[in-house]
């Protein structure tokens, strides 16, 4: 019984991660001819770390049902290293 429950929980976790948008780099974004561009998303909050920004942009890409995203981090002059983030998203 315990093994069955653990297998079910593992399958559930794996299936939920399968729907998350996948980060791609700039070179891959230039070669996205076979997918549909959904546009650009912007997050207008300041983030202290790149990890915080990446999590936020991936969550937003997921909400737009994107399969792929290419994030663009922007550091603003005079903002103590904080950044804003945008991303191209693709289906």
TrEMBL record:
Keyword Signal: yes
One Pfam family it belongs to: YdgH_BhsA-like
Position of the signal peptide: 1-20
Keywords for the protein's UniProt record, in alphabetical order: Signal
Domain of life according to the entry: Bacteria
Domain YdgH/BhsA/McbA-like: 37-91
Name under which the protein is recorded: Uncharacterized UPF0379 family protein
Organism, scientific name: Buttiauxella brennerae ATCC 51605
Lineage: Bacteria, Pseudomonadati, Pseudomonadota, Gammaproteobacteria, Enterobacterales
């Amino acid at each position: 019984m315990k093994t069955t429950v653990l297998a079910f929980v593992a399958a559930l976790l794996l299936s939920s991660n399968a729907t998350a948008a996948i980060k791609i780099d700039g070179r891959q974004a230039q070669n996205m001819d076979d997918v549909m561009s959904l546009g650009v998303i912007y997050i207008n909050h300041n983030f202290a770390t790149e990890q915080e920004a990446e999590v936020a942009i991936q969550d937003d890409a997921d909400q737009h049902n994107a399969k792929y995203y290419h994030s663009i981090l922007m550091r603003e002059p005079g903002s103590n290293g904080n950044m804003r983030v945008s991303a191209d998203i693709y289906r």
